[in-house]
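Course assignment 3, question 2. Fill in each field.
Student: A.L.
Task: Predict the tertiary structure for the chain below.
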Amino acid sequence: MPVPQFWLDFLVRREYERVYRHWTVGILAVTHGLAWFDRFLLLGILDDIRREFNADFQQGGLLQTAFVISYMIFAPLFGYMGDRYNRRYLMAFGVFFWSLTTFIGSYMPSYSTFLLFRSLVGIGEASYSTIAPTIISDIFVSDNRSRMLALFYFAIPVGSGMGYIVGSTAANLGGNWRWALRVTPFLGAAAVLLIIFILVDPVRGEAEGKSDVSVTSYREDIKSLCSNKSFMLSTLGFTCVSFVTGALAWWGPNFIARGAQLIRKSSSVDAPSIALVFGVIAMMSGVIGVPLGSIFATRLRATHPKIDPILCSVGLFCSAPFIFAALCVANSNTLVVFLLIFFGEVALNLNWAIVADILLYVVVPPRRSTAEAFQILISHALGDAGSPYLVGVISDFLKDTIHVGDYHDDAVVDLTEFKSLQYALFSTCFVEILGAVCFLITSFYIVEDRMKVEAELQSNNQCSLPDDSRRTGHHEG
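Answer field:
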């Protein structure tokens, strides 16, 4: 008996939709990894940049801070547009813009002009990072959404680690640190083509059966987000994660290299190799930590509805002692330092996908891009926008107060700089504990806030049905 044509059409349509959804997540994840790849290229070549521009610790940290400041300033603008306009074109513009400014920046002759173009890169990345997670939320729900978000945020450690690796490798092969920044434009061009010609912008709220999304004013959006306890508290917790991630990523390789110099009593330590190893560790800790957090959350959520913020809190409480121990033994055993940082960052990376999932299920669809932008603004303004620069300022200040001997002795100078950077980085451990407390408090409100969103979506969906459908409880078609 032949299979009816309508059934064949249905199967083809379902298979197409399934492939389309997974292709969309794949494109978003790869481009997300490229964004972090571009962001962390500098970390493998930071010492080379400082030497060429004769920059101190503060100026070295300012390169990342300037990038993040422009990133967080423009995030609300793109969040507003992402809730109202075609998200595909906004993301394509962002990728094109950051790739172009990275390439042009590689030719800048002075510190001030190079700093300017690094800040411009943040504008392009702001348009992508605020919008991409909301597209995933519009094509997946429940545990499927959690798994797809885990894949999306899995790209962060992979991209970051590749940034370290490719940055230092390209600089060595090209004989100049500037060649490291000329890798991004070619990868960015491919990403732009994928976004424009393959990725499709879904209807907002489509996965939750809400295709009639009504957009409220920006003032109402912000007022609603500020009164959302789970969103605000999880944002504060994620701000602490951002602070620690930014400080360790920016100063970690430099600090470990200085500790290795003290161990060997020599200044001939291979800093690029240390940056390379640090990048591999950052990548592998994320490869394990991000999906691990998502797996725990999806398996425990049915029986423990508060598990998401609790897992984030546990991750930070576990990470802090590992990072503290790594900072303490950096001038004793480099291998142990790398091992402790690995475990500390695995625990820290448990947060990424879970925090994104929390935002998407405690905020209604027409406000999600705005919520992403708001979270980016807060987490970067109080997190990694200032942490690299703040650690540099504290370190420079402590160099003038720590007295370990004769400052005319090179060995004394090396020890002083190591100690000052070590004491400055201890601040990350206290911030991790603060973040853990914020997530713990979030667990008191998470169930109530999630139920509010589900009730609002259900109410709107019922209101959008024809009168006969509402009376019978069935949707026509």
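Instructor remarks: The chain is about 80% helix and 0% strand. Confidence is low (pLDDT under 50) at residues 1-12, 465-477.
Grade: pending
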